[in-house]
Amino acid sequence: MTKKAVALISGGLDSMLAAKVVMEQGVHVEGLNFYTGFCVEGHTHAIRRKDRAKEKRNNALWVAEQLGIPLHIIDVTSEYKDVVLNPKHGYGQHLNPCLDCKIFMVNKALAWGFMDEHGFDFIVTGEVIGQRPKSQRKETMPIVARESGADDLLLRPLCAKNLPPTRPEREGWVDREALFDFHGRNRKPQMALAEAFGLTDYAQPAGGCCFLTDERYAAKLADLWEARGERDYELDDIMLLKVGRHIRPAPHYKLIVGREEGENRFLEGYRKRFLHLRTSRVPGPLALVDGTPARDDIGLAAQVLARYSQGRDEAEVEVSVHHPDGVVELVNVAPLAPAELPAAWHV
Amino acid sequence: MSDRGTGERLDARGLLCPLPVIRTQDRVRTLRPGTLLDVIATDPGVLHDIPAWCRVHGHRVLFSRREGEDIRIRVEVCET
Description:
The complex is a heterodimer of chains A (347) and B (80).
Chain A (H helix, E strand, L loop, with lengths): L3 E5 L4 H11 L4 E8 L7 H5 L11 H9 L3 E5 L1 H9 L12 H16 L8 E3 L15 H9 L5 E2 L11 H4 L17 H9 L18 H14 L6 H6 L4 E6 L2 E5 L3 H8 L6 E5 L6 E6 L3 H13 L9 E6 L5 E6 L14
Parallel strand pairs in A: 1-2, 1-4, 2-3, 4-5
Antiparallel strand pairs in A: 6-7, 7-9, 8-9, 8-10, 10-11
Chain B lengths: L7 E5 L6 H10 L7 E6 L4 H12 L2 E8 L2 E7 L4
Parallel strand pairs in B: 1-2
Antiparallel strand pairs in B: 2-4, 3-4
């Protein structure tokens, strides 16, 4: 009877190869991809006009097509919050909880794949010992297997020979001798294997596929938590951190200023929920005001906005202030000079 | 549940990929083969991603077109 494996597909080369290696052994493989809200691809390409020429493919779907397997994409944005806020194994270089993330995803794959209606026999990941400093080390491999609950039903085909035999190997569902012993950060073995499989086009994300590994993004998230006095977020919060200039003149409010047309259009979608500003007589960006600005703060916010409008060199610029209750008021302000906008305000 | 030709509609406007794909996937799962599903979205990423998702799952895209700021993609749910 054909065995069934569910493969975690990130869209990168390693998970693609891991799935392919198992498929080559006659195993029925289906892909699973998790949407955490922090995934790099997708949003940013869709928002910014300068990125519109870039191919907008979803790499995980593209990998599934190359392999000829179904891909199931699971929205885990709500549950993932606990991984980000309370990582048992801590963060990596920034706010990336990579080890907890891997445990979470394997656990979710276990729960999904072993449901009666799906009936998978084991889980496949593209992990390679030594590939990632936080989550893919010799000592973390058993931690992921144990804490996810997958135990010896978790097969890492690319480095299986460096690990104790798993049940799929012991039971002969796959041939251990046809698996690999990759280790370390050297990518040449993977590239050679890709070539052997005839796979020539694959994503090579620099710095991973998660915004939490990005220093500037992590700084904005930390700023959000500090300003709100609690470590929490909603999906809209983490989406907005990907867009615009974030300028915080005071702890109790910040501006999110669109940098170009695509971002302004994206921010438009949020305008009914935020106090927002726009220039009324000269072209300029849209700015959302997040927080609880006092009456006196609105003038300064308007000055910041005017500084990014085409009226930046004028003595005065008219700015319309749109309150969430629908009230609109007009204010005339002097655009802030660059020297009046402290670098420390830029989050 | 609707029969072929009467059509279902999924409003995914304002969502960024892959959320429109996930919503499509979850809706298709509830529909009978032969049902037509119109997905209305604003993220241009759907022009690539929804057809790709349909291909790997054996469903058909009958057309995709821009309608002002919106994008409409008609999916025919197939037996898989």
